[in-house]
Amino acid sequence: MRVAKGNTSGSASAKGGDNFTGEVFIDSVFPAAEGVMISSVFFAPGSRTHWHSHENGQILMVARGRGLVVNREGDSVEITAGDVVHAGPGEVHWHGGSRESFMIHTAVSLGNTSWFGEVSNDDYLKESK
Ligand code: MN
Q1: pLDDT tens digits for range 75-109
Q2: 52 CA → ligand 1 middle, Å
């Protein structure tokens, strides 16, 4: 069993790397162990992940702000504080802030993540209100 007491390490937030568009910051809650990784993620307005999937799925719990989650089947849902999303195993999707609001979520990611390239500005603007 692991118990996190928040980010008490004082470590700097990690900037989202090559698999993100825009200003994204990630605090590790739990590093990956036994196929489970938990992170707190801040998406600035307009920022988002690239297309990706999680081997055994992912649960997103929205803490603050407003954003969206979109899958390859065309489901596109605005998400706000309190919302919970379950992406199934292998379900290709992306998530991020809305055009004019940041979004903070806790992500529980299960298994390895596979990445499939960026969400174009055109595609983003089509989905984001
Ligand atoms: Mn995801």
Answers
A1: 999 999 999 999 999 999 999 999 999 999 999 99
A2: 6
pTM: 0.93
pLDDT confidence tier of residue 6, bands split at 50, 70 and 90: confident
- In the chain the domains, ranked by start, together with CATH numbers, are 20-127 (2.60.120.10)
Instruction: Give the closest residue to 94 by CA, choosing from 40, 29, 85, 102.
Output: 85
The rounded Å distance from CA 73 to ligand 1 centre is: 15
Ligand 1 centroid–CA 95 distance in Å is 7
CA of 63 to the centre of ligand 1 (A): 16
Provide the residue type at 123 as one letter.
D
> Do residues 14 and 27 lie in contact, with contact meaning Cβ atoms separated by under 8 Å?
yes
CA of 94 to the centre of ligand 1 (A): 6
